Fold this protein.
Amino acid sequence: MGSIFSKTLREQRRALAWWAFGLVAAVVLTTAFYPSISKNAASFEKLLGSLPEGLRKAFGEDFASPAGYLQARLFSIFAPVLLLIYAIGAGSRAIAGEEERQTLDLLLSTPVPRRRVVLDKALAMVAASAGLGALLGLAIVLTGPPFDISVGITNVAAAAADCVLLAVAFGGAALAVGAGTGRRSVAVGVTAGAAAVSYLIDILALSVNGLGWLQHLSPFFYYRDPEPIVHGLDPVDAIVLAAIAVIGVAIAAWSFQRRDLAA
Amino acid sequence: MNAPAPAVSVRGLTKSYGRVRGVVDLTFSVERGEVFGYLGPNGAGKTTTIRTLLDFIRPTDGRASILGLDSRRDVIEIHGHVGYLPGEFGLYEHLTAREQLTYLGSLRGGVDEGSIGELAERFDLDLDVHIASLSHGNKQKVGLIQAFVHHPDVLILDEPTQGLDPLMQQAFYRLQDEARERGATVFLSSHVMPEVEHVCDRVGIIRDGRLVAVEDIDDLKGKAVKMVEVRLATPAPSGTFDRVPGVREAVAFGDRVRVTMAGPIDPLVKALARHEVLDLESRESSLEEIFLTFYGSAEDDG
């Protein structure tokens, strides 16, 4: 069975297969509809024009170009949310799940430091998210061209990597809450709530003048701006999201190390 | 060389949980090679003590060490030397028993597949069944196997026989004897006296989070009281046997007298000789009864 890392991934292989299937299906359904939508681009853009400015910016305004279409249909919300749900679930389960199912006592009675358990589980969460992200990119690269979607591989990779970074940022936060409280539902609730608020803040700041400063508190802002599928990955944005993940894992290790375990 | 540090040493250990009772100022030690029973009613603080030894919970005050290693500072080294069976534990339901045991073994640097198989055979456990479909008793066997399989120097077992049928309890006792023969120390908790009486050299009694006694099992048996029940041809007036040396209590009902006594029985026999005795029955009290005599009703205030 090997290490905690490989065991954590192995036990998720069936669930991950379903995530992969769902993700690829979503990509295929998106790319396959591009030809019919690009033909009617004018009417879609009129429809978009009727939306409030914030939403319009959030979805992307350039609906007709392949990159703009992928941004609007896939990367504005659908793909990042799929990866987010996975990562938040994995992060919440990592420690709190084992603690609630009382498997933690036997695991920690072995000569393995608590911080290594946290680290192994964090790496498993990152690896699985990265795997899903890679599959997302690959599916776009493979199924795009037959439907006239030609976007540079670098930009697809950038957009997929951006999704992964956003996911592991919240996954790291979920790990921290779960490891600190020992309660899985609290970790899922708090982190999913924070992700929803973060998304709303980003949208709101786009539409309301004078709220621009607020965006900088929102991980979704660093995810969305500038849209990597169009502009490539901004290194500062990537570093901010990665830093949130690293800080989350560090807090998880620190708080888990110093607290009593639930009986 | 100094004498080796005790297998388990607990000094002034206190754990408070706000208003909820934890353990208070525990001090005791367990020598190497000893089988030590930690006895007390449910909720007395047995599990709290054990989880503190393993650094799962941290003491409010005091300290504990295992093989001279500090429970807070040297936790990883301690875990390498200890085989631990929790009182309540979960297993990975989607794994088979073999996979669970191999996984835990790999985190200890690998354990011999053959040893796992051999222990499973002794406990009559099918290793290739998914844990989700194992009964409580079979899960307990998985817990016992993972505690013994790496031949630890110290075994810390929280209620090891719960859920095991009598045959499997015997298998466990044999395993424990073998561990003792190779010099391992066993610290086991229980809420039932007969189990402790059966297998332990010494016993510590905990009640309401406090250690009320640490006794040698043999010493305890020396304190044994006898129950003597006599049937007389004609009822003796009450108080007849009260002043006989060694008698703690004599209760007359009808033509019978029930005498509780410690020490030699001869004075009682001499006193009885003045009466026509129809029947006489005598038995040793169990350790359970001894405890009730010395330390009050331990089972009542769990």
Q: What stands out?
A: Chain B has ten helices and 14 strands. Chain B has two domains: 8-219, 225-284.
